[in-house]
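Re: Re: ligand-bound prediction request (bumping)

Still looking for help on this. To restate: I need the protein modeled with zinc ion bound, output as structure tokens. Inputs repeated here so nobody has to scroll up.
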Amino acid sequence: MIVFNKDKILRKTICCFLIIGFLSSSCEETEQDIAPGLVDEQQNFQLDLKQFDNGNRVMMQAFYWNVEPIGEWYNTINEKLEDWADAGVDRIWLPPVSKGQSGRFSMGYDPSDYFDLGDFDQHGTIKTRFGSRAELQGLINESHANNIEVIADVVLGHNSGGGKQDNPFRPGDTEVYSLFNEANGNASGKFNRTNAHFHPNDIHEKDEEALFFEKTDLCHDQPYVKDWLWKRDDSVAEYYKKLGFDGWRFDYVKSFSPIVVKEWNAKVGGFSVGENFDGNAEVLKKWVDESGSPAFDFACFYKLEEALDRFKDLTFLERDMLRKIYPDKAVTFTANHDTEKDENVNNNISFSNKMLAYSYILTHDGYPTIFYNDYENLTFQKTLKNLMLIHSTIATGNIEVLKSDKEEYIMKRGGSESNPGLILYMNIGRRAKKVEVQSNWLNKNITDYSENMEIMLETDATGKVELEVPANSFTVWSLAK
Ligand code: ZN
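Reply:
Sorry for the wait, this slipped through. Here it is.
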């Protein structure tokens, strides 16, 4: 939990209000007597941010690892779409929709039949873990009715759940499961596969990158594989597009050439993002250059994790990130289905620092992802919705870092002629802090929109102002009424 230090702030607020004449009672009055009224007055200080709609929206990762295996997931999230749209979600990213080897327990990352979306009785189930094709179609339609695009998670690197078949290029290995046909994990009969379509084969040993599930690592250099995945008019890509999918999240792109993504997108279009699981911003940049597609900003994720959790040093935020190189190609995030797996405790951003991490990605550039479990966590939801509102309104204009040291990070968004912009103040220290900064606001009243500090401040004639932040928390400043 973030320590909001409300008591102290409310007392400060009381005095602040007195000074500016909203109340006539004394500073000695107890918080219980007047605090409720103060909160109302404070809200009256804030501008209605919706007047500053800057067009920014967010993507919802609409699942987590091990959602209940009862075939009801599409129906579950269908009911949340209206709320998500209101909060600023313009895309949802679904888990892989095709039937996997683990049947109704499959999270979709073990693809067997790309054309079985809950249609065929195989791997012990008709529905996938998430529901039937009809329920998926209903979810897509309802998303579109709420102006939300639907992003398919496509797993192109490897396959699972085929029949046993010796591969002449793997002499002596009798445990190869590379046969996919109507009787072997591919009931749809579309894109049947044999050992020739996996590595090694008559073309080469492997792709340019490391093999993953190496015995059934798909070879995208085989014309037959390219045809079925994206080239034909009844390819996987075209089939998903016809269902209504608007874009693509490419799983584990280290396991095949970026050209695959480039060609897929050239054929079917739409938004896309690649999972290049790498904290090195230059590696991400190279992949973006070669694929032409945005990528998840793992560099930003790891810098946040290092700054907030691992080293407790905000100067890590000064290091390279994809969003600093290509803000329009960086999909930022603070958590995903992998980082929040139970066994992954050393590779995530702790709950106590989660809102600080979101305050960063929702005020900077890049296209932020909101993780389902964070948004649906009622401890976080109010703060997160408020940050999403800030993101879609006053988080705009040039980025300027005003202060960066171990415990404090202050960043200004310059806004525009018609938008006041903001100043984010992050503090991971154990004490509240104050610091004078140079704002763009001259002789103005400003207030905190994060709801962590309910006070109003005045900038001087040159724009200088002494900003404040509670211990282990953040504030977001912009013009008051
Ligand atoms: Zn190959």
